[in-house]
Amino acid sequence: MSDDPEEIVWQGRFITAKRRGRWDYVGRARNIRAAVILAVVDGDVLLVEQHRMPLGRACLELPAGLIGDETEGESVEDAAARELLEETGYRAARIEPLGEFASSPGMVSETFTFVRATGLVQEGAGGGEEGEGITVHRVALANLSAFVDAARARGLAMDVKLLALLGAGMLAG
User: What is the DSSP string of 99-110?
Assistant: First the structure.
């Protein structure tokens, strides 16, 4: 662990480039965190597809969103419920935090809280806010691997958090 102070090298609206000793890394402005949502409905998992500017192409992901980006002090559960409804059109009766994780800890200081959403009822089409262009996919867990393979073949990027769903199948071969 470095005793060097954290230095802000550059700060934009959403991202902050930082340095501590010899390490350069990035984080979210205002140290905002994210919630990533595992939402399963009758054996189907809800996934979202959206264009991601840093990748230059669409990416297949679990629904997710920022905590407290609009309302300071927002809880993980409230942010996850809001983002799930906005992105997928489903309202959850219960949001259960499963733990805090880091997706790329060698480069990004951001962490996310993984949550499970249960008691889902569809209230709308989803698709996110205007301009986000989110496509919602409801995929049978039994067909998830084939769905991911087909999406990859179409040129979609895959969010690393999908490994939470594919992991056991990958270990089995």
Answer: EEE-S-TTTB--
Neighbours of 105 (CB within 10 A): 11
Q: Which residues contact 9 (CB under 8 A, 6 or more apart)?
A: 17, 18, 19, 24
* pLDDT score at 30: 83
Q: Which domains does the chain have, with CATH numbers?
A: 32-165 (3.90.79.10)
- Burial label for 99, CB within 10 Å (0-12, 13-18, 19+), is exposed
The catalytic residue among 83, 86, 96, 130 is 130
DSSP 29: G
Catalytic site residue 130? Answer: yes
- Output DSSP code: residue 141: G
* Pairwise CA distance, residues 159 & 157, whole Å: 7
pTM: 0.91
